[in-house]
Design goal:
The structure is a homodimer of 207-residue chains. By secondary structure, the first copy, chain A, is an alpha/beta fold. Chain A has ten helices and six strands. At the A-B interface, helix 1 of A face helix 1 of B. Chain A binds a DNA duplex (30 and 30 nucleotides) through helix 9.
DNA sequence: AACCGGCCGTGACAGATGTCATCCGTGTCA
DNA sequence: TGACACGGATGACATCTGTCACGGCCGGTT
């Protein structure tokens, strides 16, 4: 028979072993796809991609070490010929925006039907965009941060429960100033407390 | 050849289609396991279990409709011969405690290696316990709620951002009383704000 | 040069938050 | 029967939170 196209070499990264193993099994059943590496941490992605000669990296976002978006940027910098498909639980507009900025070719959420994953891998391998139009639209609308740099500074600290007093010390500002930035951020996120504001900003990818 | 044992009929419930499909593929490769139903909502579990004649239900916890623990109780009530294996992202002691109380035979987290899932299904099918000893210990220690009924009442409302004024109206208490219960709950959970207290209590399964 | 808008920064203030001391009713125990 | 512990409930109070009005600086526009 005519020579076959060599299979697409795929690296899988997900911190949940069960999910990773199941996805490896799913993709491994495709005749034209071969899972050549599996890692559970973001900071293992690049070396594993290099060693395994992966054509496509399928990355979750929330992982120990570095996250999947940071791993994406690292992979693209080190292996320009290697494409990245982000597969994540949360279809956050901010995630999509940052992932594309980091060089990801595709972005799917775990709500996607399983049979579409292999097709997404094939398309990404060919350099074609794979992403949900609704999510893209939402990213366009929500993804644009309206926070100033200082507002982001104080929200990041607020995210970890740091008091106004501590934030003012850390950023060399008066407490009134910190409260004013927090208040402004609360308004821009449409929330009622700094905790909600920080969480919403993070979900939108503004932090 | 000698007659084979009929395969174990398994129902899969997970709101993430990709994960569910991948797990179905993984389990479907086992000669003695047959995936007979897949659902994405907790409130579809019972009817699907009945229709498919499932021997084992593999349930995620966080799903639309009712959660996997409520679904467990419903399955056990309706089909006493059907065993439940909980497969969840968060190995929260409170979840384990509530799952066992609801009648689950097994409880694994998604950090488990993929190859152990089929074995877990087989063991659960035989009525054997499947759970992580470390998680069981942690559940024993943390899972016991130290909150009073009223503290739980106010924390549940605090979880959704309800103000003290609203909580006092809803529970027919004075605002001072509500603050006192919130303060007590903050102390018992070792936190600093009612938001943290509510979140920690939920994680521990105290709510 | 003058004006304007936005960001950065500040302090005053009203209202919200969490702590504390206290009281009452109920159940348990000696 | 009396003492005690506990949960439920309350209000006073110190502190914190978020809003608001304001000023300075900078860059862009007229």
């Amino acid at each position: 028979m005519v020579s076959e196209t060599p299979p697409i070499r795929v690296l899988l990264a997900d911190d949940q072993a069960l999910v990773r193993g199941a996805l490896a099994t799913l993709l491994g059943l495709e005749p034209d796809i071969e899972v050549v590496a599996e890692v559970g941490r973001g900071d293992e992605v690049v070396s594993a991609a290099v060693q395994s000669g992966a054509h496509v990296c399928v990355l979750d976002i929330e992982m120990p070490g570095i996250d999947g978006i940071e791993a994406t940027a690292a992979v693209r910098a080190r292996l320009p010929g290697c494409h990245v498909l982000i597969v994540t639980t949360f279809g956050r507009p901010g995630y999509l925006k940052r992932a594309l900025a980091a060089g990801a070719t595709g972005f799917v959420v775990k709500d996607t039907p399983a049979r579409q994953l292999a097709d997404a891998v094939r398309r990404v391998h060919q350099g074609l965009r794979v992403l949900d139009p609704a999510l893209a639209t939402s990213s366009l609308i929500e993804g644009e941060s309206h926070l100033t740099e200082r507002e982001r500074d104080v929200l990041r600290l607020a995210l970890t429960g740091t008091t106004v007093a501590d934030i003012s010390v850390r950023l060399h500002l008066s407490q009134g100033t910190v409260r004013n930035y927090l208040s402004s951020a609360i308004g821009k996120t449409g929330t009622h407390t700094r905790y909600e504001a920080a969480r919403v900003a993070q979900e939108r990818g503004w932090l």
